[in-house]
Amino acid sequence: MNYHINDLPDRTAKPRNSGLTMVMDKGLSLRQAEDFIEMGEGYTDVIKLGWATSYVSPNLDAKLKLYKDAGLPVYFGGTLFEAMIVRGQFDDYCRLLDKYQMEYAEVSDGSIDLEHDEKCEYIRKLSKQITVISEVGSKDVQKIFAPYKWINLMRAELEAGSWKVIAEARESGNVGIYRDSGEVRQGLVDEILTQIPEEKIIWEAPQKAQQVWFIKLIGANVSLGNIAPVDIIPLETLRLGIRSDTFEHFLKK
Amino acid sequence: MNYHINDLPDRTAKPRNSGLTMVMDKGLSLRQAEDFIEMGEGYTDVIKLGWATSYVSPNLDAKLKLYKDAGLPVYFGGTLFEAMIVRGQFDDYCRLLDKYQMEYAEVSDGSIDLEHDEKCEYIRKLSKQITVISEVGSKDVQKIFAPYKWINLMRAELEAGSWKVIAEARESGNVGIYRDSGEVRQGLVDEILTQIPEEKIIWEAPQKAQQVWFIKLIGANVSLGNIAPVDIIPLETLRLGIRSDTFEHFLKK
Amino acid sequence: MNYHINDLPDRTAKPRNSGLTMVMDKGLSLRQAEDFIEMGEGYTDVIKLGWATSYVSPNLDAKLKLYKDAGLPVYFGGTLFEAMIVRGQFDDYCRLLDKYQMEYAEVSDGSIDLEHDEKCEYIRKLSKQITVISEVGSKDVQKIFAPYKWINLMRAELEAGSWKVIAEARESGNVGIYRDSGEVRQGLVDEILTQIPEEKIIWEAPQKAQQVWFIKLIGANVSLGNIAPVDIIPLETLRLGIRSDTFEHFLKK
User: Fold this and answer.
1) Which subunits sit against B, judged by 3+ Cβ pairs under 8 A?
2) Matching Pfam families, A to Z (chains A, B, C) (predicted)?
3) SS3 C104
4) Percent of chain B at pLDDT above 90?
5) Is residue C7 part of a domain?
6) Is A2 inside a domain boundary?
7) Is residue C9 situated within a structural domain?
8) Cβ-contact A252, A64 below 8 angstroms
9) I want to staple C225 with a disulfide (CB 3.0 to 4.6 A). Which of A4, A78, A219, C204 is the partner?
């Protein structure tokens, strides 16, 4: 930090097990990725190449190298996994992970119908060689799960080998744990937290109000995902209570 | 593409006559324009320097050279044309096109009242020396045209020499073919498509939901405009059905 | 300007006393700051490092030097001032201004309760050595002041030594002089303008509709703040009436 402010909340340090920030890259150029690294390296724990943007991005090899050199783990968005398995290309997908020497993979079923046993089987297979993050929740606004179902899915996926589970929100933040309006389903989150250890969950929270809500509920070291690269500095100030939205929350009385 | 996914929709290749993407540059620096080219060159067919941003942009010559070297045609937004003809400066405007060796020009009347015969006369004159794109629809939310009028205007402008007609939406996507809320006027679009060849129209679609709507209606190779530079990679994934919004639409049953 | 358009409104030139644009940097990398300077140098009068982003930004020294070399004055957002004085660190804050050789400082009370006499005392002290900009209005949507109170606060702060007063809106533009929806509190603005000289006020106006509203009310040379770096070119076209939103307003009849 550049100077000293008294009585700020403690932040976990890298490598973090809680208080993670997962950033979504949905098509940065190499120079833009370097710019992001300059600002966000210390505050970023893992980077998702959003959905299947890696398929059409001209600079994939160079970008993966760039993030690797900066010590930032990268994974392909779950929609790529889904696009390939729905087409019977799971083996191709595994070869892809090999070819690009990926150390993380996301297993999700936000856009396809997948028996949960089968999903857990994918997690089991992949987690033997790679760190698996799995995502719970549909991208379909119509598909709303009851809290006990969220809990069962998360628990089963963690047991199958997921390092962390992600609570779905999409890039836009309006499905899964959020209402259409972006508002948090508070009762759902509260109930999940009675059963699943907090440090096993990454909450997708692309909107500022969502980040603020989770920071107030869980604290500076909540794990948040789908953070836009430009929001990495603003998010860190929210976690520390030095932006108005969380200013009073962290003030010692 | 970086790897193989089975059964994706075919995309037209450059130079494209359908499936065009028109990107709006509203003030990129040179380096930002280079970053955009790195990611978007293969997916971009034409670039609009939004409204009269070219008037105040410090780097105009260098930027035009940069896009030219990348083989990306550029044109000045129609509001510049309007700002000059409403001030009696049509000759100045023509000299401007010469001076900057522009190969495309936009003729529009979104902010001024212009007899349609006169508009077509401008199209006729300019199209003798330059590729003309003309825009139909007002930027004024109060001015709503009936479908038959849209059709007559588009037909007359194509006959006058326009290469393509653009269906107005502004940078924000809330006028012309959209309601104030950004929602598509579906009946209008359907009716236009019964009379005007689909490949002659570029639909301004700055918002993701609008892009999705047109891709679902017309297919991967619909021509879309007013795309933000940062959306060039995301849009390409929407066209290919590898982002959740169009994932199921393109899935072979 | 790159070419000539007749009958555009006159813009004040730097160093400006009215028609100022204050830009908010909330975490630009060095290269992004250079890109901004390339486009915005001539149109920008002062830069705010938003709230306490300076605390967590890795490149602070280099960025301050970069802006200084470009002749662009910089100040730390008022939330940093508040975060330090609420923790009894006013002396630390002064040392910070010294250490970074800041020429401007913001005094605000948007996130804390501060007696107005005390706030004016801070303004008085700081303005002996540095140019002070003070901000009026709460970041709390619940705290709505009557117009006479805005006027009294502004007047007292100007008398205490503020160079300009800023009318609060936050980065999002939905508090202070705006309703929750972002709409301007027109009666409030009108009443303020009957008592406080227009050129002493910088109106925070992060949203385009807000910029348009103030330009139409006060003219091309209204002072606006919390402008995003990417909006510097678009804003200049609004001021000149060469974007549709203000096109007709500035047209000579």
Assistant:
1) A, C
2) ComA
3) strand
4) 88
5) no
6) no
7) no
8) no
9) C204
